[in-house]
Amino acid sequence: MCDFHPALQFELARCYRIEDWIEPAFRQLMDIPITSLEMSHMRQIGDAGYFWLVQTKAQIDNHRKHFAFDTPAAINDPACNTPATCNYTWSREWDTTISELIHHPDVPMSCIDLLNLLEETEIDDLCEGHRKRTVSWVCGIGHATKEEDLIDAAVTALMSLQTDEPIRAALMSSVVDGAERQVQGTSSLRGQPISKAITSVIHRSHSIELVPR
After folding, report:
1. With CB atoms counted within 10 Å of each terminal CB, which end of the chain scores lower, N or C?
2. Among 100, 125, 128, which residue's Cα sits nearest to residue 114?
3. How many CA atoms lie within 13 A of 44 on its CB side?
């Protein structure tokens, strides 16, 4: 979509409320190692964006560690004539090949890509029924969509800020305007520095709002 860095795209999306840019920019940032981001990129992403970026990356990394470490039990195919061999082969392949692919330092595979690869790849000493039943079961317990679910949750939170931030800014502006008018009409606040007087009115209004009706 854009020829510039996703951090800049994300900043422009936030500043100018280009909602269609939020998700693609965030997904591109998810593909970039945190160590490759410069200070200028972090400023462009902003506090909320950087928080969701780091948190989502950490959650996905934690999920992948558990996914690779906890070898799922093989689901036997009733038509299989060598269930013991299939069970052993599945565990062996998971503990070696799967762990290497998911933790590859340069091009780690996502959980869903790994499961798709397993479903389509023939493995020696592992019957097709055994393999497909087990992959289907692993997908069914949420492993396949977990990473996408985490990214979707972050994007949803960031999209909500697109609405909430302008609203909060408008409300705060309204409160300040009201405080200024009250300062002008309150004799006890006259003579105080304007910033101190407005702060006093705002605190007082917040205190009043907390009293049960």
Report:
1. C
2. 100
3. 19
